[in-house]
C-alpha cells in the first residue's frame, strides 16, 4: 500500500515538472533579445557611441584594409609591432596585441584557411 501511495505522489509531482515547448522557449528568448535591442542600439550608434564605446572613431585606421584582399603586409606589421612594443598597461588598450600574440603563439587554436 505504501508503494502505491509513493508512486501516486511521485506521479503527481512529475506532472508539474514539464518543460515549456521548444517553440515557447524560443519565442521567450526572442522577446527578451528584442526588449533590450532598442536600448543597446541607442547606446552604440550616432553621437552616443562616442561617449559609450572607448576609443570610438568614425574613421578607424583599419578601415583602409576593408576589401583590399592583401592583408599579409599589414598583418606582418602588426605581429612585428606587438612583438617589440610593450603593453600599454590597460587590458582594453592591449586587446589588439593580445589577440595578435595569441594567434601567433597558439596556431592550433585558430582556424586554418586554404
What tags apply to this protein structure?
elongated; mainly alpha; 5 helices; 114 residues
**Rg (CA only):** 26 Å
The shape, in one word, is elongated
Give a quick account of the main beta sheet: strands, pairing sense, barrel closure: none
H/E topology pattern: HHHHH
Query: Total helix count?
Result: 5
Can you describe this structure in just a few lines?
By secondary structure, the protein is mainly alpha-helical. It has five helices and no strands. α4 (72-84) crosses α5.
Describe this structure in words.
The protein has 114 residues and is mainly α. The chain has a domain at 1-44. Helix content is 59%, strand content 0%. The chain is built from five helices and no strands. The chain has helices spanning 2-15, 22-44, 47-52, 72-84, 95-105. The longest helix has 23 residues, at 22-44. The termini are far apart. The model has no long low-confidence stretch (mean pLDDT 80).
Sequence-ordered SSE layout with sheet pairings:
Elements: H1 2-15, H2 22-44, H3 47-52, H4 72-84, H5 95-105
Amino acid at each position: 500500500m505504501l508503494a502505491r501511495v509513493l508512486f501516486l505522489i511521485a506521479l503527481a509531482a512529475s506532472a508539474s515538472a514539464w518543460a515549456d515547448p521548444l517553440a515557447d522557449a524560443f519565442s521567450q528568448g526572442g522577446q527578451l533579445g528584442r526588449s533590450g535591442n532598442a536600448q543597446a542600439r541607442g547606446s552604440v550608434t550616432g553621437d552616443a557611441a562616442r561617449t559609450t564605446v572607448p576609443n570610438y572613431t568614425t574613421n578607424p585606421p583599419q578601415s583602409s584594409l576593408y576589401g583590399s584582399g592583401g592583408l599579409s603586409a599589414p598583418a606582418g606589421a602588426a605581429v612585428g609591432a606587438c612583438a617589440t612594443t610593450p603593453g600599454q598597461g590597460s587590458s582594453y588598450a592591449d586587446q589588439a596585441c593580445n589577440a595578435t600574440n595569441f594567434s601567433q603563439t597558439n596556431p592550433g587554436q585558430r582556424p586554418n584557411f586554404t
